Amino acid sequence: MNPADYPVTKKNWEELSRTTWAFHPNTRQQLADYPINDDGSAIKVFMYNAVGGSTIHWAAHVPRFHPSDFRVKTLDGVADDWPISYWDLEPYYDQNDVMMGCSGIHGDPANPERSPRQMPPLPLGPDGQRMAAAFDRLGWHWWPSDNHVNSQSYKGRDACNNCGPNVWGCNRKAKASVDVTYLPEAIDYGAEVRAGSTVFDIATDTAGRATGVRYYDTAGEAHFQAAKAVIVACNAVGTARMLLHSASASHPQGLANTSGLVGKNLMFHVYANAVGLFAESAPTYKGAIANIIMSQEFYETDPARGFVRGYSLQMARSSGPATTAIANASWGSAHHQNFAEHFGKSTNLGIIGEDLPVQSNRVTLEPQQCDRFGIPIPRVEYKLDGNSTRLLTHGVQQAKTALLEAGAQRVIEKPHSVNAGWHLMGTARMGDDPARSVVNAYGQAHDVDNLFVVDGSVFVTSAGVNPTPTIQALALRTADFICNERTDLK
Amino acid sequence: MSTATLTETQRQVMPAVMDRLIPAVEALLGAGAMGLLEEVERLTAEHDRYGRALVQFLEALSDVMSSAENENFPALDGAQQDQAIQKIEQALPQNFATVLEVVCLAYYNEPKVHVRIDWHGGAPQPAGFALPPFDAALLDTARQRPPFWRQD
Q: A150: which of A106, A282, A436, B24 is 20 to 30 A away, CA to CA?
């Protein structure tokens, strides 16, 4: 990616955010994108395809899983426990924060104590302070969001200048995307990046071990790259597609799919929103669009609430005028009044809820539709279950309470967000039992001992927080395993 | 890029439609009278999704008008124009939403509109906004709570 091309540097950034930089690949239709059939999904799939992956397009919110998130079967009798604990992952969370740079502050009572953050938190702004004071008056938890956005310059990358829409790329490199953090160091260690390449198949030998990958270059020419080990990180939709498409005589159901679980147990996070409209307000478009403060008052299971597991409440800001008008304003005679009520005067509380795994929520290959290389596209089927619906209903009411406490004149309830599939998880889950999981606790495929998965596919459960720091911590743990335990692959 | 282009008749109808979608306010003309058709055409030419939606919308409007007493949309009064648009909004809601999106993008990218709504306009970078230091005293109340994450 060339940061100079990011929408934040363009006058028509709102147009770009809805077209060539849209969250959905079917809308974006860039060369690196492949179409997705998610007509049968209650949540639409969002991802970004580029060197740097979806971290180009993320908000850089980096809450960690709680210890309870790894033990949901033991604690709440649902889904499955992970084969690892929070404490197994903790040193890798820390290592990742050093690599990416974390703005935040330790001492959060909703989470285990953490090492000091690399930088202080980003400021809350008048709107964040208003929300924090409301949480305090209610006696609810809140804490500044841990953020992979620099509040000070860090490792040669500038501090954030609070411009707002950094989810569409940060030309200052204040937002830690992988292309400006891990990749430069990897290249220094000898890694080679073949940008614009599209892998379409993981090749295997007669014994079923991975021998390398087949890919198309930018000119559409096919190549084979031999490898001692293949590490897949295509996200929970792309990885499932890749493994299923890599079926062979030795892996007739798809690669690493003896369990039949590749593609199954797809999880998003279930989302809902409450939007508070404030009569008097400093403009709520000033500052990062998300990652301001978070409340985990309702994170852990409380049987009295009528659902298991829980959710986080995350504050988000408003955006530019076109985005505001498109999302909120009606047409005709009411347009201008409606716009004036929203523009710069709205605060959003998002409910990000744990999404429990269900096998019928899944990714399969769509045999009738192919991408530009003739590779079958993924078909995504997903439904919300009753637990998720009850969780979201509860969350919207609590968010409404908090916004009214903050002084909102009116609160608009949005009980289920369809356009919210940023977090893709679960389609190659980890576990100790090869009959009930795809990879082991180190991301190594049970069926193929030189194949590793290091993205959200390996999640056993989703927790109720953004997944990226957990994905990155798991990837670091897998890397350690390969370096220290699989010297045969070097 | 889109191959969708408007006919001359459609180019005459569209400003009247735009004026109904985003009407005049205070000293500002409506989106059509303001002369934003060219910007709408740029958007529909550059983005296929927009181009398809607009052409389909205007063809549907033409169908609605052909069964009306007066086929000339710009000559109708405002209430009649709204009725015609509402018919398409009900029949083709997704398509209508896309057309409204295009008109909003054109309108809210216009400097005259920015002045009225007190929006700075331009690219978010390099200007940004001030980044004051975090005030740790804000956490005085939150810090008093003992750890409550689940430890069983």
A: A282
Residue A161, min C-alpha distance to chain B (Å)? 5
Q: Looking at the domain assignment, is residue B118 inside a domain?
A: yes
Question: What's the domain range around B72?
Answer: 8-144
Find the CB nearest B129 among A109, A110, A287: A287
Question: Residue B2 falls within a domain, yes or no?
Answer: no
d(Cα B14, Cα A245) in Å, to the nearest integer?
47
Q: Out of B125, B132, B142, whose CB is closest to A123?
A: B132
pLDDT computed for residue A409 by the predictor: 97
CA–CA separation, B77 and A371 (whole Å): 48
Q: H-helix or E-strand containing A226?
A: strand A222-226
**What digits encode the pLDDT tens for the residues A144-202?**
999 999 999 999 999 999 999 999 999 999 999 999 999 999 999 999 999 999 999 99
Residue of chain B minimizing CA distance to A145: B134
* Residue B92 is assigned to a structural domain of this protein: yes
In contact, A444 and A458? CB cutoff 8 Å: no
Tokens encoding A152: 């000070």
pLDDT digits (tens, 9 = 90+) for A28-77: 999 999 999 999 999 999 999 999 999 999 999 999 999 999 999 999 99
pLDDT at B152: 82
